[in-house]
Amino acid sequence: MQLFFNPNITKETKQITFDKEESRHIVRVLRKKEGDLLHITNGAGFLFFVEITIANDKRCLTTVVKYENKPNNRDYYLHLAIAPTKNNDRLEWFLEKATEIGIDEITPIICDNSERKIIKIDRLAKIVQSAMKQSLQFTLPKLNNPIKFSEFIKQNFTEEIYIAHCEENIEKKFLQNSVQKNGKYTVLIGPEGDFSSKEIETSLSSNFLPISLGENRLRTETAGLNVVQSIAFIHQ
Question: Are β-strands 15-17 and 160-164 bridged in parallel, bridged antiparallel, or unpaired?
Fold first, then answer.
């Protein structure tokens, strides 16, 4: 299945017109013609079947034939608050793989030791959209704007909350031994230089539970993916 994404489609939509770039891809690359069916998701748990009525490589026009409700069947909700990596490619790699495995919400957090404090959120959004389509999912993970750690931590959290850090003098439990199945989780992942002592102290005083991701010291993006995979494994 070749899956397209259009966030503006609703159950009431009758016709969909593709932009020039996607029209060219559909007609020139995929060699689709009038009468062929395409599959589109709005990222909100719906799959739309549309028929090409005008196969123009500059303005491809389609008519909605039917739609199906494709809800997210995961029985948990995972929100990862992760510090942007110094190398932007590594953050993009994490977003791609995390989306493929299964994640619900991502917030870039700017920490005391963050080496990258400015990110291009529009580009990251495209990475997430592409990964959703590639993995044939119909619910788009929520990608929030960057926020300072000091502001993020002030929220009124009602879910299970965890922080993965490298401080050795604080007792930590393994993530898989801490989470309750079928729950809602928020996990903090710090930058390459780890969270500062002040940030760790603040998180613990805010009732975040310290967790270990293993004996090896992991890169930020690896630690993030470790969490995503571990939560997914627990719920298999």
Answer: unpaired
